[in-house]
Specification:
alpha+beta; 6 strands
């Protein structure tokens, strides 16, 4: 029997509530109910034997990629998200010790450093820039040589699960053999016993992927230490072409025989370093293009922190304190720094979106920082080129949720309606994020959406009905709630909070007795 530690579950709850449970899907509302009913939920989780526990089947989505294809992504059941995070937390520090130390300047992606705040990774670790710097150093050292570039096909979805138990034991020691068995059982359960693939989206999967990659790193080290890796992108430098081809041959065999993984035929090749450097120039140019923004942003950044350091962050699906923000904004505007930064981001976004193939790394940075500073000057560009930013829909919607007010909703009503009416919005993954946007209370001002027919799931309709206080919609599902799937059922129970006191109390009290642990938590939370 293997059970999680109470301290690990506490850390995991902190992780999923502070940093989100998934990099692709909106944060589930269930975590509010779990936190509110944590005593009962934690008791349930502490009693699980993870050597036999069967997790729920995750929601599978297809997120649009920049090249027009789709990435398979997964959203775990909220309780399974906590279990996955807690189990990974118990082995995370040991797994980091198994990896090539960071001072060797080889492995740069996701250095593991769990914090009391609930993060698996060091937020101050600016490794991407250092990764590029070290790559250029090796290129200069082997300027007349060759480089092997490797990329694993569909890495997360092809990871062979039957190697995970042994690798955890190898990395952490015999004392953690039970953890390895629990992890393998959990991941096999998510896959309905299919032996390939870890969920794409949860942060714990990054750590499992790095464990697999660490085993490959050690194989490369048996040949040379002149290489760098970022996730599954590997660049290995050699003086001669013969040596490069020999190592690529042996490494390909190792990766397949030990992990059942395959290198991409398009991205894996032997190149002259000269050609490799030419291919790097685009990234360098994108980096240089942001210098102007960085210089002005640093000045703004210090001023911003000084002003709002004590203001707590807010849930992205709750109303932002616009009145308080406007007070801060007026102070910033006194010396014109806000206008400078606003213009910089508008110029950058305009230049990128006018390109046939915009740089998505640049766009991601713009949306995140514009949201952070509540810069609204880029809104017209976002609406004009919305189809181009759909591959960055998460960042775009999170930005909109941070700048959205009643006035913004009124000013851009037609633009929001065009997004709702767009054919792309009927793609399930896109629809999920648009529905998350439509949960914002600012849309009560303009009554969007006018009806529910453009929202695909009962789950999302229930949450929008909650925002609109649409009691008729909730009552229509009241008697049939037990026939719904788990995600839809919990959302309808959650929406019952808008019913009259007596009506919701009786219904939700019964629902709490009938339901499982999570349904009971949601029903009790909504009743209160």
């Amino acid at each position: 029997m293997f059970q999680l530690k109470e301290s690990s579950l506490e850390w995991a709850l902190n992780h999923v509530t502070r940093f989100s449970a998934n990099d692709f899907f909106p944060q589930p509302f269930e975590f509010k109910a779990i936190a509110d009913q944590w005593g009962e939920v934690k008791k349930h989780l502490l009693g699980l034997d993870l050597h036999v526990y069967a997790p729920k089947t995750p929601v599978v989505g297809l997120a649009l990629k920049p090249n027009g294809t789709f990435r398979v992504v997964h959203q775990l059941d909220p309780l399974d998200s906590i279990i996955y995070a807690a189990l990974t937390y118990e082995i995370a520090a040991k797994l980091e010790q198994y990896r090539i130390p960071r001072e060797k300047c080889i492995v740069w992606s996701y250095r593991i450093k769990p914090s009391v705040k609930g993060s698996f990774f060091d937020p101050e670790d600016n490794t991407w820039r250092e990764y590029n710097r070290r790559t250029r150093e090796l290129a200069a050292e082997f300027k007349d040589g060759y480089v092997v570039t490797c990329d694993i096909v569909d890495f997360y979805n092809q990871i062979y699960l039957h190697r995970i138990e042994n690798l955890i034991e190898e990395a952490c020691g015999l004392a953690y053999a039970a953890h390895g068995k629990a992890m393998e059982n959990f991941l096999l359960g998510l896959n309905t016993l299919t032996s390939r693939g870890i969920p794409v989206g949860p942060a714990p999967s990054i750590i499992i992927a790095e464990l697999i990659a660490a085993d490959i790193d050690k194989k490369i080290l048996s040949y040379t230490d002149n290489f760098v890796r970022w996730v599954d992108d590997i660049s290995i430098f050699f003086a001669t072409k013969d040596e490069a081809e020999r190592v690529l041959h042996e490494l390909t065999a190792f990766v397949h025989s030990n992990h059942r993984l395959v290198f991409s035929g398009e991205k894996t090749r032997v190149l002259t370093v000269e050609r490799f450097v030419r291919n790097m120039r685009d990234e360098e140019e994108e980096e240089q293009k942001l210098v102007k923004a960085r210089a002005k942003e640093r000045a703004m950044d210090a001023y911003w922190k000084e002003l709002i350091e004590e203001i707590p962050t807010y849930d992205i699906f709750e109303a932002f304190d616009e009145e308080r923000f406007q007070e801060v904004l007026k102070t910033i505007q006194k010396d014109g720094r806000y206008e400078i930064l606003s213009e910089v981001y508008r110029e950058l976004l305009s230049a990128e979106l006018k390109k046939p193939y915009p740089g998505f790394a640049v766009l991601r940075r713009i949306f995140r920082n514009a949201g952070r500073y509540r810069i609204r000057s880029i809104l017209p560009l976002l609406f004009k080129y919305f189809d181009k930013v759909v591959p960055l829909l998460r960042e775009a919607v999170l930005y909109l949720l941070k700048v959205l007010t009643k006035d913004v909703a009124i000013s851009y009503k037609e633009e929001f309606q065009r997004i709702i009416d767009s054919p792309r919005t009927q793609l399930p993954f896109v629809n999920t994020w648009i529905a998350a946007l439509l949960r914002h209370p600012a849309f009560n001002t303009i009554e969007l959406p006018p009806n529910y027919d453009r929202v695909l799931t009962i789950h999302d309709r229930a949450l929008i009905a909650t925002r609109r206080e649409d009691r008729t919609w909730v009552k229509d599902y009241k008697n049939g709630v037990d026939t719904l799937g788990p995600w839809d059922k919990r959302a309808v129970l959650y929406s019952a909070q808008i019913l009259s006191k007596d009506e919701k109390r009786a219904w939700l009290k019964l629902a709490a007795r009938r339901g499982d642990c999570l349904e009971a938590a949601v029903a009790t939370f909504a009743r209160r």
